[in-house]
Amino acid sequence: MESRFLIRRLRHVTRHAGAAFRARTGVGFRSTSLWPVMLALVMTAMSCVNRVTPPARPDEPITVILLDHGRHPSLMLPRDRNEETWGRYSYGEWRWYAEGRGNVFGAFSAMLWPTRGALGRQLLHADQSVQVHFVRMHPIEVSSKRAHRLAQKLDAVFEADGREPRHNPDFHAEFVPHPRAYSIFNQSNKVMADWLQELDCEVRGPVLYSKWRIVK
Question: pLDDT tens digits, residue range 69-117?
Fold first, then answer.
């Protein structure tokens, strides 16, 4: 019954998405041929694991934290050499994460064409808890230089142009627009894989769903 309901909802989403796409571009597509592909992608992603292999011998090792929130991940990075302040960073779709007005079926339509991306950040002291729900926590040992470099890079994006961040209490984080648009090819798990690779981790898997495993 749940599968039939999901199929009906995917048909509904793709039908309306097709009408919106035609209105924007004048180009049409058959929603009846699209929804089975979307369903197959979802089912495949839910059954696959993203495997992360940390660097073998990182210089000046430090531990960063990959948090799995169920549908999306976030990454905790130290923001100073003494590890007294930390940043929890995440990426997602602007309407969903910054404005808090997304839903699971709206996510499918958002993936049909690029939409506004959002960079999220929560600043924490070493003795503070993240105060946000997560299902798994994955400590990863990486190079401290790479961790600080990534944190500085994300802070620079967050603080660019002096933009006023938008606070969403549901995620205990503030959000600003991200220069990279959100799409099925650039969603929260894909961006997280990019960040982990910048920490010299090897990432294998579809990175379409937040299901992570650390390979020792």
Answer: 988 999 999 998 788 899 999 999 999 899 987 665 555 656 667 899 9
Domain boundaries, given as residue ranges, for the chain: 1-47, 50-214
Amino acid 41: pLDDT: 56
Token pair of 38 as six digits: 């979307």
Cβ distance 179 to 116 under 8 Å? no
Strand partners, 103: none
Is the Cβ–Cβ distance between 94 and 175 less than 8 Å? Answer: yes
Please give the torsion angle defined by the CA atoms of residues 177, 178, 181 and 185, in that order, rounded to the nearest 10 degrees: -130
Q: How far is CA 178 from CA 28, 29, 94, 151, in A?
A: 29, 29, 9, 15
Query: For residue 89, with 0-12 CB atoms within 10 Å meaning exposed, 13-18 middle and 19 or more buried, which class applies?
Result: buried
CA dist 172 and 114 (Å) reads 25
Contact between 53 and 201 (Cβ < 8 Å):
yes
CA distance 25 to 195: 33
Residues composing the chain: 216
Q: pLDDT of 17-73, one tens digit each?
A: 444 434 444 444 444 455 455 555 555 555 579 999 999 999 999 999 999 998 899
Q: Collapsing DSSP states into helix, strand and coil, what is residue 168?
A: strand
